[in-house]
């Protein structure tokens, strides 16, 4: 894939994203929801067994919904009103178009995710007060990095699933209940097997202590594998299905 051919495609997809108010709103919601719910978690943290890192980043469980909505909306717009035909007329190479779309999704989520991680860590540490004294610099940096990478992976997973289903509503109807309800239920019932769910695996990086079988980086790798599977299926769908 030549850079000279890819750059105009990426520029075109970035224009689409930055001109949609719903996309900008999702990025803002990702930051605000994460920070707000993390602050509330810090206020309610009590006892000697408090995990300071997870308390500081608790809001990621809610901010990820905005990241998922961002990835979903970016793709679902292509399947409305023949927009995909126009996109492929401008970029006939379907693989190049899909790669440009995914890159245009990943970069702003990663950037806002890093900002979200930094603000969340600062606010969470301030709210926790003395309970955050055991939170070291290395753990804090891991939390910020893990927050950004995790949110980006979830946005891309949502984009891949939306491409497979060719429906934003369909993707959200699967992912939102799963992230807010099903994953917690399965986690309580299934033991270690639930550690390999995409959200639970990725969020290991946001814990100071974790009793599961994954560590922070292998957990993010598991989430990345889920994302890669969704993207691969989406790419296959783009190549095989008429616009």
Describe the structure.
The protein is mostly helical and 243 residues long. 77% of the residues lie in helices and 0% in strands. It is built from 10 helices and no strands. The chain has helices spanning 3-18, 21-44, 52-56, 60-76, 83-90, 94-128, 137-165, 168-190, 198-202, 216-240. Helix 1 packs across helix 6 (94-128), helix 4 (60-76) packs antiparallel against helix 8 (168-190) and helix 7 (137-165) packs parallel to helix 10 (216-240). The mean pLDDT is 88.
What is this structure's SSE topology?
Elements: H1 3-18, H2 21-44, H3 52-56, H4 60-76, H5 83-90, H6 94-128, H7 137-165, H8 168-190, H9 198-202, H10 216-240
Helix pairs in contact: 1-6, 2-4, 2-6, 4-6, 4-7, 4-8, 6-7, 7-8, 7-10
The largest pleated sheet is described as: none
Helical percent range?
Answer: over 70%
By DSSP, the count of extended strands is 0
Low-confidence stretches: none
Mean pLDDT: 88
Any key phrases for this structure?
10 helices, 243 residues, elongated, mainly alpha
């Amino acid at each position: 894939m030549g850079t000279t051919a890819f750059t105009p495609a990426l520029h075109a997809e970035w224009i689409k994203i930055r001109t949609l108010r719903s996309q900008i709103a999702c990025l803002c919601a990702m930051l605000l929801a994460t920070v707000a719910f993390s602050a509330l978690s810090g206020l309610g943290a009590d006892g000697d067994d408090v995990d300071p890192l997870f308390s500081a980043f608790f809001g990621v469980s809610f901010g990820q919904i905005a990241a998922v909505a961002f990835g979903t909306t970016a793709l679902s717009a292509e399947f409305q009103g023949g927009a995909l035909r126009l996109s492929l007329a401008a970029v006939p190479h379907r693989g190049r178009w899909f790669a440009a779309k995914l890159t245009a999704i990943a970069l702003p989520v990663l950037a806002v995710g890093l900002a979200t991680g930094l603000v969340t860590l600062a606010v969470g540490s301030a709210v926790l007060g003395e309970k955050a004294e055991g939170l070291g610099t290395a753990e804090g940096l891991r939390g910020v990095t893990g927050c950004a990478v995790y949110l980006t992976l979830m946005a891309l997973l949502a984009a891949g699933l939306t491409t497979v289903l060719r429906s934003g509503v369909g993707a959200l109807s699967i992912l939102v209940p799963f992230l807010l309800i099903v994953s917690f239920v399965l986690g309580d019932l299934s033991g270690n097997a639930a550690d390999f769910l995409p959200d639970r695996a990725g969020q290991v990086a946001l814990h100071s202590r974790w009793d599961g079988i994954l560590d922070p980086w292998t957990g993010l790798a598991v989430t990345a594998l889920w994302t890669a599977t969704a993207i691969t299926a989406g790419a296959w769908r783009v190549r095989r299905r008429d616009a």
